[in-house]
Model the fold of this input.
Amino acid sequence: MPRAERLAVGDGFDGGGRVLYAACALSQFLVAAGASVVTTMGPALREANGLRASWLPWAVLVYVLALGLLVLPLRLLIRRTRPLPVLILGLWLFVQSSVALTLVSGAPAFLAFRAVQGAGAAALTATALALVLALDLDLDGQRPDRLLLAWSAVVVVGFGTGLAAGAVVGADWRWALWANVPLTATAGIPLVRLLRSTRRRDEAVGAGAGAGSGDGGGGGDSDGVGVGQGEEAQDAAA
Done:
């Protein structure tokens, strides 16, 4: 894709590109860690929720299935609407299910909330993909392939961190899930603020353009990044 077209898509973030990229990468770190953390939590987790040892793989499988089945529909939804509502939905589902997993008892309830957590992870992943693809990846002269390599490394580290955290916490396994609350807020708050600020700016620009031209055209339905339209332009350019 030509450089000029990438800039037209990604310039809506102004100087927030690095913050956005880092926040998206952190969200994918949490998604990867959330997939693996329960696999090594051991007997304390199984005793608290009535999970047999043979059922523990299902706690991973339902998460991965929800993530894999929902990420593409949510991705398409973002392209047709806006990323902000899907992002907020993903943050809410991921945090609420992480807390619920520390409170419920019984294997069916635990597995159900793992599926909900996977749905939240799918929303976060779909939003992160949309935002990063709408962002000009050549930040400060760094090559896009290096940034994508860093992104992949973050996901791998997240998966390994989940395994290590599950093994370390032992009887205090609930703390590994409670940690999702501040970490998700750390990733989510900058993303929400960037999307809202760019949307307000684009609404003001659209209102000014409408007043100047006399046709009332505005940009009120955008999150400031033109994700849907920008990706359609990318597809056409490709």
Q: What stands out?
A: DSSP finds ten helices and no strands in the chain. The two ends are 6 Å apart (CA to CA).
